[in-house]
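Study this one:
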Amino acid sequence: MSGSKPQKARVRRGADQGRSATRPMTAPLRPLEIYDTTLRDGAQAEDVSFSADDKVRVAQKLDELGVQFIEGGWPGANPKDIEFFRIIKTIPLQHATVVAFGATRRAGNPVHKDANIQALLAADTSTVTLFGKSWNLHVTEALNVSLSKNLELIEDSVAYLREKGRRLFYDAEHFFDGYKANPDYALETIRRAVKGGAERVILCDTNGGAMPWEIREICAVVKRECPVPLGIHAHNDTEMAVANSLVAVDAGVLQVQGTINGIGERCGNANLCSILPNLELKMKRGVLGDRRLSRLREVSNFVTEIANLMPNKHQPYVGDAAFAHKGGVHIHAVQKNPATYEHIVPSLVGNRQRMLVSDYSGRSGLLGKAELYGIKLSKDNPKLQELLDRLKDLENQGYAFEGAEGSLELLMRQAVGRYKPSFQLLGFRVIVEKRNAKEAPISEATLMVKVGDVIEHTAAVGHGPVDALDHALRKALEVFYPQLREVKLLDYKVRVLAANQGTASKVRVLVESGDQKEKWGTVGVSENVMEASWQALADSIEYKLLPKDR
């Protein structure tokens, strides 16, 4: 295989650098191009559906991040993408060029009458990415044309759009499979695209089945044969998309394509949230500049929210757990020197270090967490051991505080005498009534709480029993604490802890709440799902009402 191996080096982390060894550079390298296809390939992921306005908002966020190209969609495929290209022309972008994506002309259409080609022109972008077939199997089986006809489709489609003043990138679809099946033909498809006027040729692992050593060898061959810069477009069907993209860069590829969070068809695309920091921090290939990499987690979360997906907390670099430490040995070491268990400074990608308190934690972890909450405890304070024992007892009962730091802070403040409940529950009742088989059940909660010397008695309905209880609690307390109107219930999870007991099993309820400034998690555990839900809901309210100067 071509390419040199990274040389080992001992490095000491500075305030704004990664912790990994880097290869020595013998000559300046051409700046890489980052091409984001979240709005096109990412939108083809299962459970993802962007509106035209959603796509505009994501495009603005990607522009702020500093990517060079944003693939906006396929204007010949659906009205939504046509609307996006109409709107985005009115939005000033600082860094990115918006690209329209489409296919070579149909075999039976003259290029000037092909509807998809004309839609690309109507999108009115300065740059167009055109894809064509590189694999002889697809030419004969999918397009049902001759190999020579396919070459004609590629060349005249590219040439026509170039004549119309468009800058052309050519996506060589299924290139790696095509090269392995018929290298001469796969290379000829590229030659025809370049002859037509393509400025970039992007090698696509469309089925996501290529291995890194194959990517390296094939990219090296194509680089010798192709007179224009190359790109890489990898899919993740073998969990190799990020590795394949980085290997392609190492082999001399200039443009890297991918999506935020790796969303995309089937198993997804190459994940830019891993590729970007790997390029900048590990390979020392600057791509965004001006420390914009520190916005990566923000962009990742933004796309997750717009796509209405659950965040992957274990995602490298940007996930909540990426720099979270739970084991006592780990926590103790990280407090002495973060480099012991962290490969970069978390803030470089907009993330933060987290110390998780659990039954794996020791005194060091608990002290660190207490300090984070503004609670001062010395190592020899007897309350520290009491708190640790209490924590381990609760986790033995089924409580989990990794995702419920709101409940954890309340527990710690209660243990040291720095917490006074804002209200007292006197009782609640929840009724679920189904009047006939065709109607949805009706849920109603009645609640009585005491605030100071005042007793408040309320009732509310909801979409389910927990929703009804949540509404009743807020209705009772908003009279005394109007700031609770800012709080939203963002997520609700129930987990059965002992399934062998059937419907009598103990359950754990995790609730995520938030306001305009922050999010927090709370937890409850009981054999009764309503009791567990009450604990989590009550903690959520109590956390919100904690003094802000704590």
